[in-house]
Write a structure and sequence with these properties.
Residues 4-118 form the Gfo/Idh/MocA-like oxidoreductase N-terminal domain. There is one protein chain. By secondary structure, the chain is an alpha/beta fold. It has two domains: 4-117 and 282-300, NAD(P)-binding Rossmann-like Domain (Rossmann fold, 3-Layer(aba) Sandwich), CATH 3.40.50.720; 121-279 and 312-323, Dihydrodipicolinate Reductase, domain 2. It is 35% helix and 27% strand. It contains nine helices and 14 strands. The chain has helices at 13-24, 53-58, 73-82, 97-110, 124-134, 161-177, 258-264, 281-293, 303-327; strands at residues 4-9, 28-34, 49-50, 63-66, 86-90, 114-117, 141-149, 181-189, 199-206, 211-217, 224-231, 234-239, 244-250, 268-273. The strands form two sheets. It has an eight-stranded mixed sheet with strand order 8-9-10-7-11-12-13-14. A six-stranded parallel sheet has the order 3-2-1-4-5-6, sandwiched between helices. α3 packs parallel to α4 (97-110), α4 (97-110) runs antiparallel to α9 (303-327) and α5 (124-134) runs parallel beside α6 (161-177). The longest helix is centred in the C-terminal third of the chain and has 25 residues, at 303-327.
């Protein structure tokens, strides 16, 4: 079977990684690239750098990756859907729920694959964690807490930290628990002098009763990507920077020091760091997208799932705005 011809639009920080991985994945050929601002990272190789999505479509592509700024997802995605091109759109799916809803409908109406690049789902640590949760290794799940902190990325200018970064945590939390959000509440602040929020503290509850907590910002001098899932039998800690997964078991030996035992609630048990295969998440994401286009696998983040995440993010921002209004 001939390779699928892939078009890539957007050659910025994420686009350069997409170009590399597309060239590495079996069954795919990077057939065309486009970016109205040029090719700052020199990823085009022998391919001409096209200027528009229309030119990309005219190159005769089977599938596309949309890595343009979030505000352009709607325009580019709708054009690709109209042309019948299977498309992976970088997260978030769009800049507004209204725009995301149009994309979901456009791809559904055409009967083609529309996927969203919530890459954390393909992190080996989170893949292993989800399987272990589903197998009951934690028993009842009580809480999922995430911390996603680091310096400000110069590449982001059109959305704030909630839609750019916190959407990772919203998506991975609902995916890990296999349950959507029922309620969310948040506090945000803007400290960097830019027009969008750069720090958020959010809490929520999923439909299945799991409580959630997310700390996300662009204001920390250190980079941190942690997911902690606490349950009946202990806690899992997934570090998605290193793809490490560690289990902290509840102890089975009673503590004789009564005051300590009463304070801790549970006793400390064994700590296990799992040896897991560490494949590059972006490569896994592209393999899943390829398989979905071929009708072999449904392991992509669908546009409807991406829309659900965006809707939760907008609700989070709404609650934060209300909180600020009440305090003034």
């Amino acid at each position: 079977m001939a390779d699928l011809r892939v078009g890539l639009i957007g050659l910025g920080m994420m686009g350069r990684h997409h170009a590399r991985v597309i060239r590495e994945v079996e069954g795919l050929t990077l057939a065309a690239v486009a970016d109205a601002t040029g090719d700052p990272h020199g990823v085009a190789g022998d391919l001409p750098v096209l200027g528009t999505v229309a030119e990309l479509i005219d190159a005769g592509i089977d599938m596309a990756v949309c890595a343009v700024p979030t505000a352009m997802h709607e325009e580019v995605g709708l054009a690709l859907a109209e042309a019948g091109v299977h498309t992976l759109v970088e997260k978030p799916v769009a800049h507004t729920v209204e725009a995301g809803t149009k994309l979901v409908k456009a791809f559904a109406d055409k009967g083609i694959v529309g996927a969203v690049g919530h890459i954390e789902r393909y992190n080996p640590a989170l893949q292993s964690l989800r399987a272990r949760m589903a197998d009951g290794e934690l028993g009842d799940i009580y809480q999922i807490a995430t911390r996603r902190q680091g310096p400000f990325p110069a590449r982001i200018a059109d959305v704030g930290v909630v839609k750019d970064l916190a959407t990772h945590d919203i998506d991975l939390t609902a995916w890990l628990a296999q349950s959507e959000y029922a309620t969310v509440s948040a506090q945000v602040t803007t400290r960097s002098g830019r027009p969008h929020e750069d720090m958020v503290a959010a809490t929520g509850r999923l439909d299945n009763g799991t409580i959630t907590n997310h700390l996300v910002n662009w204001l920390s001098p250190m980079k941190e990507r942690l997911t902690v899932v606490t349950g009946e039998k202990g806690a899992f800690v997934a570090d998605t920077l290193t793809a490490d997964l560690t289990f902290y078991a509840n102890g089975v030996i009673n503590t004789e020091w009564d005051s300590v035992a009463n304070f801790r609630g549970v006793s400390e048990g064994n700590v296990t760091r799992y040896a897991i295969q560490k494949r590059e998440p972006l490569r896994t994401e592209h393999e899943k997208f390829r398989d979905a286009v071929l009708g072999l696998d449904a392991g992509v983040v669908t546009m409807q799932e991406g829309l659900n995440t965006l809707r939760t993010a907008e609700e989070l921002l709404r609650t934060a705005t209300q909180a600020v209004s009440r305090s003034v």
